[in-house]
Amino acid sequence: MCTDTIKDDKNLFFQKNGVKLLKFRIFEQYNDKLVHCFTTRIGGVSTGECESLNLGFKRRDSRENVIENYKRVCSALDINIEDIVLSDQVHDKKIKTVYESDRGKGILKNSDIIGVDGLITNKKNIALVTFYADCVPVYIFDTGKTAIGLAHSGWKGTLKEIAREMVEKMHAEYGSRPSDMKAVIGPSIGKCCFEVGDEVVDAFLTGIPWSKSFISKNDGEKWKIDLKAVVKKTLMNSGVLEENIEVSNICTKCCKSIFFSYRGDEGKTGSLAAIMQLK
Ligand SMILES: [Zn+2]
Prior knowledge:
By secondary structure, the chain is an alpha+beta fold.
């Protein structure tokens, strides 16, 4: 099942010095302006549950390993480790505007970026990084004002409509128009595997009633939510055009041999990263 998905020609995997990364078709025409990727678990130095390309400092891994993994990813993307800025995710909807002075925060220097699930910038040569292991990565590139944003949309962030928050923040900060935005909803847990309890279903039906059409249940099974579809609808409700949204067909739990999956690895796993930088 996963093998077929991975081989889908929609999925642009590339490998450099052993590091395997994924790019998205919708951004390919902007290669002169934009660096982007979603990482896999392949090509790093970490061992055990973080084998091998863990990019999270909060996982059970050594700092040395994580830094080496970043160096390898930076080399593959041709970006500088000094330019990286990390989020500090708490499953909320706060988005931070990132400036030149933020470079290195969370990786090479101490960070005052606390409780932030999304990062935006219109500055060049700042690499935004957010983290995942089943949650939904949301990428936005504003082709009009040339600005970028990344948001971590787990089920809580999805319920809080963090994707809408990012669209609105980019509009407020940069004058970005939703109709100029190209968006990606990246690899994350699919509806096939995202089983939830009644309390989560109730929270969605109360918080965003229109999400009802993305929640279903077969006889004798648990409820399942299509988080990627909910995030896509949130972007469309915010003015992003459907034809400008690419939704990855990869389920991280089904494809846990390639991607870290919190549910697939029963919590003992590493962190994947979404990375975006203007150049
Ligand atoms: Zn799945």
